[in-house]
Amino acid sequence: MSDEEEHFEGPGSLNGTFQQQAGNIRKNGFIVIQNRPCKVVKVSASETGNYGHGQCHFTAIDIFTRERFEDTVPSSHNCDVPHVIRTDYQLVDISEDGYVSLLTGGGRTKDNLKLPTDETLAGQACGCYC
């Protein structure tokens, strides 16, 4: 089983971001909306109108809380995009005190992660949905 982690450097701030033109952000990409790192699930673009700017409407899901956000930005304007690093681990062991032992891609173990105490979340983390 793999545990997937997506990191946002400095939640609540824009330290872990870079600028990207709104017209270049695509579905399955990332964007910061209301200071939250989000994965884009839908993008719709409108044509340039009487006011001279095309608009991009983003529908996105917060990568930590799964909350849904929407934003409309002129396609020529820059948006903040979070630096997202995805790391897969292989589950090696779960100790009796609730800590998991994970194997990194480099062959080392990561032993400082404690399972959630909520049974539903713990089941999802283990992949067994107990």
TrEMBL record:
- Record Pfam families: eIF-5a, IF5A-like_N
Matches recorded under SMART domains: eIF-5a (SM01376)
Entries under PANTHER family matching the protein: TRANSLATION INITIATION FACTOR 5A FAMILY MEMBER
What is stated as this protein's family in its record? Belongs to the eIF-5A family.
Protein name (record): Eukaryotic translation initiation factor 5A
Species in which this protein is naturally found: Lolium multiflorum (Italian ryegrass)
Q: Name one GO molecular function term.
A: ribosome binding
Please name the GO terms of the biological process aspect recorded for this protein, alphabetically: positive regulation of translational elongation; positive regulation of translational termination
What biological function has been recorded for the protein in this entry? Translation factor that promotes translation elongation and termination, particularly upon ribosome stalling at specific amino acid sequence contexts. Binds between the exit (E) and peptidyl (P) site of the ribosome and promotes rescue of stalled ribosome: specifically required for efficient translation of polyproline-containing peptides as well as other motifs that stall the ribosome. Acts as ribosome quality control (RQC) cofactor by joining the RQC complex to facilitate peptidyl transfer during CAT tailing step.
Protein biosynthesis as UniProt keyword = yes
What kind of modification does the protein receive after translation? Answer: eIF-5A seems to be the only eukaryotic protein to have a hypusine residue which is a post-translational modification of a lysine by the addition of a butylamino group.
Query: Where does this protein have coiled-coil stretches?
Result: none
Annotated Translation initiation factor 5A C-terminal domain ranges read: 83-130
Q: Which domain of life is it from?
A: Eukaryota
Q: Which UniProt keywords apply?
A: Hypusine, Protein biosynthesis
